[in-house]
Specification:
By secondary structure, the protein is α+β, with helices and mostly antiparallel strands. The chain has seven helices and 15 strands. The radius of gyration is 29 Å and the shape is elongated.
């Protein structure tokens, strides 16, 4: 039997049980290990928010840039209109002197860095660039530019096709911090594709509680693997960890070479656990708060239900946080449920098969993981009914 797609972001651990009448194999109880001190959700927890739908884009070719994913924020798409997203870095109130030419944003040597009007923090960033077809100069003097997330740290842009330089200044390096794992640039004049995951350092009370880092792919080849920023790097001098602003612009460097850019976009990233984000592994305090929030929502849902459905929703809430009143009410409801089915037989009993297995499965789960202070006699009684009726074959 096919089921309709869910249209809400929260469902229940008991969804398998709710379907038991139609599909007895769906679940014999809650599904997956319960939450613990640092994990607010159960394994396979259907109360966990569903991921947002993003329509993927497509890959670039040398002839044309690819299509960004549906939630990408476009910074430059090859049109003069998107040049308005950029201003002079030295004088942010003034338009940039960089030019749009043949669908690319081209550096005008001497014009200075360019930066976005928009500012943001952690992100997935996509940038494509091309060094001049005619290779001139050597080492750092050939096809040099740079990509600066938040204006704080440089991912090096350089024509390193048969052009060696110092290792921490290669294309795909975190400049002055870490060389790339590989030199993956194509020949000059071709388009190079950078995909960057940027996370700024997180500070609290003047102390860094989580490193900032960069992950970089150059033309699909991993060149930076979760590399700590070490203050952001720099030219000739070692930098030191320091707080970054919450938001900052993207900067592109004028290093005196007419490097071209195209297809620039980013996707904001969700907060990490250290910033209060909802992730799989959280601090004990954050986990306790999230579990309390989930339990409160389930008890609110239960207040709008009746009978067995209310009891199951209440029991589900106990998986997240204990509550004496909820435990008392749901325990009494389980006794009432047993009383309503224990003397049934024949077709009347068969009609309650799904409900009996639901309630037994919930009680079994709560008992197994010691969410109940002690096993309830109703669990054993319902198990006896299930065994006697021959429903343990799970067919």
């Amino acid at each position: 039997m096919s089921l309709p797609m869910r249209t809400h972001t929260r469902s229940t651990l008991l969804s398998g049980l709710v379907l038991a009448a139609a599909a007895p194999l769906a679940s014999a109880g809650f599904y997956g290990d319960p939450p613990d001190a640092t994990h607010p959700w159960a394994i396979h927890d259907e109360n966990r928010p569903q991921p947002p739908r993003v329509e993927p884009g497509d890959y670039s070719s040398q002839e044309k840039p690819g299509k960004p994913p549906s939630d990408a924020i476009i910074l430059f798409d090859g049109t003069p209109a998107t040049l308005a997203n950029w201003v002079s870095n030295q004088n942010p109130g003034e338009p940039t002197k960089w030019v749009v030419q043949d669908g690319s944003l081209q550096c005008v040597p001497g014009a200075g860095y360019v930066r976005t009007k928009q500012e943001w923090g952690d992100c997935q960033l996509h940038v494509e660039w091309s060094a001049p077809t005619k290779a001139e100069g050597s080492s750092q003097g050939r096809g040099n530019s740079g990509i600066f997330p938040m204006g704080q740290v440089e991912v090096q842009v350089l024509d390193n096709f048969n052009n060696p330089t110092y290792a921490d200044g290669f294309a795909g390096s975190v400049y002055g911090v870490n060389p790339p794992l590989a030199n993956a640039v194509r020949a000059p004049g071709t388009w190079q594709v950078y995909d960057i995951v940027f996370r700024r350092p997180v500070f609290k009370d003047g102390k860094m509680i989580e490193d900032g880092y960069l992950t970089v792919f150059v033309n699909g080849v991993l060149t930076q693997d979760h590399t700590p920023l070490e203050g952001g790097g720099g030219h000739r001098a070692r930098s030191h960890n320091h707080p970054f602003p919450e938001k900052g612009p993207l900067q592109l460097q004028d290093h005196g070479n007419p490097v071209r850019y195209r297809n620039i976009w980013y996707r904001p990233l969700p907060a990490r656990a250290s910033e209060g984000g909802d992730v799989s592994h959280m601090s004990e305090a954050a986990t306790a708060a999230k579990r309390a929030q989930i339990a409160a929502g389930l008890r609110e849902e239960a207040s709008k239900l009746q009978g067995k459905d209310k009891m199951l929703k209440q029991m589900e809430s106990l998986v997240y946080t204990s509550d004496a009143a909820t435990l008392t009410e749901s325990t009494k409801a389980s006794a009432d449920f047993l009383a309503s089915v224990k003397d049934l037989s024949g077709d009347k009993l068969e009609a309650q098969k799904g409900a009996i297995r639901q309630v037994h499965g919930a009680l079994n789960y709560l008992s197994k993981f010691k969410i109940l202070p002690a096993a309830l006699p109703e669990e054993a009684a319902l198990a006896g009914i299930i065994d006697k009726a021959g429903w343990n074959d799970k067919k």
